[in-house]
Amino acid sequence: MKKLTIPEEEYMLPGHTACLGCGATIAMRYVLKALGKNTILSIPACCWAVIPGVYPHRNLEVPLLYTAFEVTGAAISGIREALDALGKEDVNVVGFAGDGGTADIGLQALSAAAERGHNVFYIMYDNEAYMNTGIQRSGSTPMGAWTTTTPGGKKRMYKWEPKKSVAEIMVAHHIPYVATATIAYPEDMISKLKRAKEIKGPKFFQILSPCPTGWRHSPDKTVEVSRLAVQTNIFPLYEVINGKYKISIKPKNPKPVKEYLRLQGRFRHLTEEEIAMIQKNVDENWKALLKKERCSQEEE
Amino acid sequence: MSINLPKDPTPIAKVPSTENKTGGWRTFRPVIHYEKCIRCYICWKFCPDAAIHFAPPEAHESPKEALAKFDTVEINYDFCKGCGICANECPVNAIELVLEENFRGDEE
Predict the structure, then answer these.
(1) Tens digit of pLDDT for each residue in A52-62?
(2) Rounded Cα–Cα distance for residues A33 and A85 (Å)
(3) Does A58 contact B89 at a Cβ distance shorter than 8 Å?
(4) Residue range(s) defining the domain that contains residue A87
């Protein structure tokens, strides 16, 4: 006998080649637990392209199609239409791409798939840089972060541009379901995925998946960092159903963003003024999100 | 010139990754102290390697009579890479990280 808060079925095998404490593998575990065996995945070049291991090894109990970096959106559209033509409408088609393959390289294919309105899931596991190729800056890298292509030095050439909000870009496509999630809240993530399963049309998820290698934190802190991202409001969890915002977790007393930044080596260089600037940015974004939620409630 | 293609030219990966015993990567071995374990399964939930599995309730001792009816957990050291998330997340600190070199003597 056991009391579990998430499904027991396991569709991800052990023995994969992810780094110690990888957040993206935890994200995949939950996604497959929520969607079940009747799922087809498509993965572009990203960490998950190497995690299942080299040919002829497989790591997932569901079919998986590898594609080129920029075509995840097109690949899942094709799989969906082929399945529909065969009359197999109960199969979940999932694109599982990193933040580089979503926010930068794959954005056009994703945008087109969303606009055409295919009945697919697109899951962006956001580890905030091109981690697979060696921690290069992506559009999704947060403000102030060190990466190998924003190496700092005397001129302090870190990434100072704000993080691109892909979830908001997807909201602007007027698709029926957009949500953010993170690995520290698996119950929240799985309930969102199950809700999305019932909706016909494109569904987009942004899942924050800490990367100990690229974020320069100890591997045992992966879940802690992910939890702090929500508790400091730097990565708020919300869902947008048919344009209506709903915040999933509202921290009663949000922690200072410094607690989140100080756990990670990629923010080690930040001065107090720079942290204050990031804090201000986070507070503004949070206020804007609260406003959007209020507007959605007033409309009803 | 003709190229002889196999009947199905798509390479299909069929060998399960459980062939790779990633336990060899480990520096720290998580050891569960069952006398403290409250069987909450948080370690199972957060394991990135799916290396924690359930075991029948009577497989290990339990700190309280009321908990004895619940399944217990075990770590599969063939696959555990020793990241330590389980030890960090355990609400009762029942998992200790021990340097792998301390176990070398037992196995020989």
Answers:
(1) 988 889 999 99
(2) 27
(3) no
(4) 23-299
